[in-house]
């Protein structure tokens, strides 16, 4: 899925800006080795376009998307809503001041690629089912949300042996 937006067609003059809302389909992505989908996969994306004085574009992308996949602590379903607010400047023309957005090719803005990358950058360090998810017991693997417990017995000697192993 790819949505490109023709900036040149807008006919903006220097310093002029416009605001749009574009429906954009967002592909699933991998995070922490797990697959997450965007649901619904079509998201209304707010796009601000301004023609800069001296040429080039100043761009802002805003949207909220729900990502669905496993909680990184307990493996149950997680579906946090991620707010995205990203900016790009594309001002070609050489010189040391050149700013070249990877999402702008000529007058074409690749909205899909930008939205996908901006969403990935906006993700929290961990995707969790809820902020206070207790996760799984590191000893027995039990879901600590459902069955909070402690291990008071001495560990099984076989596990003690295992814990001496060092994993690089
Ligand atoms: Zn969880
Ligand atoms: Zn346990």
Structural write-up:
With 168 residues, this protein is mainly beta. The chain is 11% helix and 36% strand. Strands 2, 3, 4, 5, 6, 7 and 8 form a seven-stranded antiparallel sheet that branches. Strands 1-10-9 form a three-stranded antiparallel sheet. The radius of gyration is 23 Å and the shape is elongated. The mean pLDDT is 89. The structure holds zinc ion (2 copies). One zinc ion is lined by residues 71, 73-74, 76, 128-129, 133.
Q: Which structural category do the helix and sheet elements fall into?
A: mainly beta
Hey, roughly how much beta strand do the residues contain?
35-45%
What does the average pLDDT come to? Answer: 89
Task: Enumerate the spans where pLDDT stays under 50 for 5 or more consecutive residues.
Answer: none
Question: Gist?
Answer:
This protein is mostly beta strands.
Feature tags:
three-stranded antiparallel β-sheet; mainly beta; seven-stranded antiparallel β-sheet; 2 helices; binds zinc ion; 168 residues; single chain; 11% helix; 10 strands
Lay out the secondary structure.
Blueprint: E1 4-6, E2 17-25, E3 29-31, E4 34-38, E5 42-51, E6 57-70, E7 77-78, E8 81-90, E9 104-105, E10 108-110, H1 111-122, H2 157-163
Antiparallel strand pairs: 1-10, 2-5, 3-4, 4-6, 5-6, 6-7, 6-8, 9-10
Bound molecules: zinc ion (2 copies).
């Amino acid at each position: 899925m790819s949505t490109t937006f023709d900036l040149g067609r807008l006919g903006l003059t220097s310093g002029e800006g416009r605001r749009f809302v574009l429906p954009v389909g967002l592909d699933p992505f991998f995070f922490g080795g797990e697959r997450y989908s965007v649901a619904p996969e079509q998201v209304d994306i707010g796009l601000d376009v301004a023609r800069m004085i001296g040429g080039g574009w100043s761009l802002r992308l805003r949207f909220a998307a729900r990502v669905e996949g496993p909680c990184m602590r307990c493996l149950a379903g997680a579906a946090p809503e991620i707010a995205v607010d990203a900016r790009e400047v594309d001002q070609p023309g050489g010189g040391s001041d050149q700013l070249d957005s990877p999402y702008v090719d000529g007058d074409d803005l690749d909205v899909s690629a930008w939205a996908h990358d901006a969403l990935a950058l906006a993700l929290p360090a961990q995707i969790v089912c809820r902020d206070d998810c207790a996760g799984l017991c590191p000893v027995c693997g039990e879901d600590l949300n459902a069955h909070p417990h402690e291990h008071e017995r001495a560990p099984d000697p076989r596990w003690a042996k295992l814990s001496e192993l060092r994993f690089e």
